[in-house]
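Question thread 4412

I'm putting together a teaching handout and wanted feedback from people who do this every day. The idea is simple: show students a protein as raw sequence, then show them the structure tokens that encode its fold, then repeat with a second protein so they can compare. Below is the first pair exactly as I plan to print it.
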Amino acid sequence: MTETQRSRALSPVETAPGVLVHPTADRQLATAHWLLSTHRDPRRARLEWEQHGLALLPLGTLFSAVRLPERLVLAVTGGIGPSGAVDTVLDEAFGGGPVICDPDGRRYYALVPARVPVTWHQAVDEWRTTDVDCLGRDAYLGVPRVDLVRFDQRTRASYWSVPMSSAAMLCAPLAVARFIAAGQHQLTEQAADEVGPA
């Protein structure tokens, strides 16, 4: 493929007058650049992605993360572990906002605006009883390459449960808060069912 052909293949496509559609490759490239720009040495982070599929990125500048334990996520989604069905429910619940799944850590991370750990301080203190936490400044997150978007049973590597649709597109904090509330409610009901009638 020549440089001109490559340029045409990656250029936005005009589907109707004034409406541009950007190919997936363009969006992934922009998203990767945006994510890696949080690292003081983006080239090193990109190398980590290439070698390990995961880069340790600092939180609290461009985005923060809400850590959701797997049991809370599965209580809401009705799943039994990382799967396409769970990913679909998360995509709907967070309106397409990005979520990372760490199968080995049995956790999910909803990416939210950087200010959320500060503005949610009081709520987060209450949520910690169910192992929910809001990670911001002075915290790091293992972020998978933008093309790792499916659970691989063999490697059990972290992946994008809900891929980042484009640079800076994050989960709406209110959607995350509602999801946490629903999860806590479900877990409370499950615990009551296990105890049985008094």
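The second pair follows. I'd like the answer to focus on this one:
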Amino acid sequence: MAIPPSWIVQTGRSIWTNIWHLMMSQLAPPNDRGEYQRPQSEFRHRIDGNKYAAQPHRYRLYVGWSCPWAHRTLVVRTLKGLEETIEIVLVNGDANAGGWTLPKSEHDCQTLAQLYRFATPGYTGRSTVPMLWDTHTYSIVNNESAEIIEILNAEFNEYAQHPELDLAPIDLQDAIAQWNDTIYQTVNNGVYRCGFAQTQAAYDMAHTELFATLDRINELLATQAYLCGDLLTLADIRLFTTLIRFDLVYHNLFKCNRRQLRNYPQLQAYVSKIYQLADVADTCNFPTILQDYYGNLFPLNPGGIIPQLPDLSYLTQLGG
């Protein structure tokens, strides 16, 4: 079969490139260098005993299976044993709806965006997960994952099944903060900086920084169990939810293709060890992760083909 005439190729490429940049500017707003700039979360309240007090059965956590930022909160909720204290609402990614849809109508809202506007009339910002919701005041407490996991770790110990577990001990908080800064920029957001880059230079820089950090952590884990020593911390949870998706989606779909997790013996064993902690595996829904990333991120996968699950047997075969 002959390839299409050059004018068809050139015309199609020009049209697709223009449409791609338009869609990406909405999906992943860039700076003037084509680097993805993740917007800041807008709801940043704490459980402080005033407007928002720590009470069982008062708060709901809205999450999506595929979202690594929401996954953090599921892992901490599970490890602390807060399943009977904080309800989970699993929302569904729907590209046709332009975001997350609710499993059932709430306050006449069918989408998470509508629920955001119900709580804050006139709201025009991003309607993201995770989102911690107060059922008493019908308001959004917090939608910043880094802060929600701190809240879950510290503020509901009275009701937790594992109050003795502290994922942010005082003597490790400086080290945790340093790792969080590094991991956020180069790994958690780094994979998105690769996948959502809109110039070659932006992609090359993000790709280099990502693998420099993974190389560094792999070397570190040859001498200690976790990022801050022998104790699991919030920094590890933040890293885990990105790494568990690495071979599944980021390596191919986001062009993070220098190496796979399986090429890092220490990182692979580290992810397996966290995965095998009590009930953490139940927070990992791999088919939905594949479906949402490949099915909903149309600009990165315009054909809409969903790949088969890769071999994830290492999660249950290593360490533990």
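Top answer:
Good format. For the second protein you could add a caption like this: The radius of gyration is 20 Å. The mean pLDDT is 94.
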